[in-house]
Each structure stands twice: as structure tokens, then as C-alpha cells.
Amino acid sequence: xxxxxxxxxxxxxxxxxxxxxxxxxxxxxxxxxxxxxxxxxxxxxxxxxxxxxxxxxxxxxxxxxxxxxxxxxxxxxxxxxxxxxxxxxxxxxxxxxxxxxxxxxxxxxxxxxxxxxxxxxxxxxxxxxxxxxxxxxxxxxxxxxxxxxxxxxxxxxxxxxxxxxxxxxxxxxxxxxxxxxxxxxxxxxxxxxxxxxxxxxxxxxxxxxxxxxxxxxxxxxxxxxxxxxxxxxxxxxxxxxxxxxxxxxxxxxxxxxxxxxxxxxxxxxxxxxxxxxxxxxxxxxxxxxxxxxxxxxxxxxxxxxxxxxxxxxxxxxxxxxxxxxxxxxxxxxxxxxxxxxxxxxxxxxxxxxxxxxxxxxxxxxxxxxxxxxxxxxxxxxxx
Length: 383
Known about the structure:
about 375 residues, alpha/beta, Rossmann fold, 2 domains, seven-stranded parallel sheet, about 45% helix, about 15% strand, globular
């Protein structure tokens, strides 16, 4: 079966996050089934995102956004720039003969809203975040434009699906497709030192260095545990330039405690599977309503349990005290309770087996992921 589609991906991320990688995985699947894929990237994301996309033999199109949607000083100017951005998007679509648009960024929906309002192209919206509806204008865009123009909303979790249903989105326009943890190594890996393999429990985090992801809560818990247990090592993976002020604040706390060797910031990790394979416990301490952290799938694929908060879509992925642990509260004490559950060797051994097996019960495997996404675009072929 061949997909005779020319698909433009508009995702809007500025960092190579788990959500962005998931979109690139979708692009790879469609390309492998014969679709021509074009990926819109901004000049400031060329080095990190554009390079990675091109390594997958996917063509990128560089475009500098003109609309300043988050700066109210330019509200009147941005009104006219929105027309200009939509005009240039129309030119790109005509130049490359685009038949379908794959979008996953509400930010870019607003930037290109004039085009979307009048477009007759097939639009697939992969929803990795809950809709932003705190302003009347945003609610109007969802109800009056997107629900009418988008052919299918592909939600990454039941949590997201429930959110758009509550806005009035028809059931027949909604699909739920969990992400699949494709290999994404580009050479930067992290291995356990020989002297750490048997004598320590390795507790790992991977994601944004930010407060909404709970990294400050994780460091607080790590400081408490390391003071009473000398056989644990915490590793925190993520781009330290994402939030350099927070990184420096947390680094100073660790240095002042004298625990630098056991609470380590290791930078951005490309080979996430090796990183988790050399770990024992994964921590996902998101304090905001995290819609669906892809990193949990990656941890499960490596066969390690996740300790996480009851945020957003996280409870969908964790069977409490089986393949992970769901904390009662979003604080360091509750996080420590979850970590200590897996400090019991018997609990940890059982959870490692259950973590990998749970992917099957969730229907998360490469073939299922590919079949589901091909079906999305097959459906579009029939319309």
C-alpha cells in the first residue's frame, strides 16, 4: 500500500523535545509508506531540529515567522503580519504541491489562522497538549474554525481526548494514538561506570530542565535521600540551556550540599534507551497537567519503572505498584515514598519485568503505531 500524499509538517517546537521527536517519527512512518514529507522549520531551530530531521532523509523548509502573537505591544502590527504569514504559507503549499497539512502546534494555528480559516486542504491535528482556551478568542478559534476545518484530531492520550470533547468536538473526529519510542540515537550516550553497576541504585530523569516538569522537586527529593542513603545516584538529563537560571540555582544547591558526585546533571542525551538501560528507576515529576510524557514509553521500553505524579495523562501509563508508582501528592516527600517503594529489590525486580510487558497491554508497538498512522492518512485518501 502506497500513500500518494504530499504532507507539510508544521509542529513549531524550538527544541528536540520528546513531543517533537514523536512528530518526526510520524513523518518517518508516512515517508516509508510512500508519502512525500516536507517539514517547516524556523531558522533558529535549524541546528538542533532541522539537522535531525534531515538525518532522516526528510526535506526541511526554512521559514522565518513574522507574527508576534505573544507580544501585545505589536497586536495591531501582528494582525497584518498574520495575513502575510498565511500568504507565504499558501505560496509554500503551492510550490511543493502539498495535499495534506500535519500540524501539532496551537501557536502555529494562530500564526496561520487566516490560511486555515479559508483552506480546503486536508488537515490532521496531532494534539500533544490540551487546548488553550483561557481567552474567548482562543475558544472561538477552536469551536468556529478548527472543529470545522480539521479532518481528524489525533490525541496522544485519553486526557487530551476528553479535553477537546468537552469543547464540543465530534467523537468521529477524534482518534487516540499513543507514541511509540523509536530509536533516536545520534551518538551522544551515557553509560554506567563499572563501579556503579552493582553497588548503587541509579535513579534517572530525562526532559526539560524546568519547574513545570518538577526538576526542582526532584532535586529536593534527591538531596534528602542522598543524605541518608549512600547507595543511590541521581542523573538528570536535559538541555541545561533551556532554563539556565534554574539550572544554576539547582546546581548551586547540589554543590552546597557536597553531593555533586551523586546528583549529576548530564546534559542532553541522544541515546535515551542506553541511558535508561543503565538506570534502575525513572522519575517523571511533572507538576503541571502533563498530557503524555513520551519519556515514560522510553523508560518502559528499557524495562525500568516510573515514579510519577498524578498529572494529565501520566496515570494512563502507570499501573500503580506494578510497573510504576503514582505519588499521592506533588511534592518531594511523596516522590521519596515512591522511590523507596522500588528500593526494595523484590519490588524493583518485578516492576522491571512488568514495565516492558506493559507496552503490549497499552498497545504500544511499532507495527501498531505505523498501522494507526497509515490508517489516518488512508482515510484522508478516501475523502
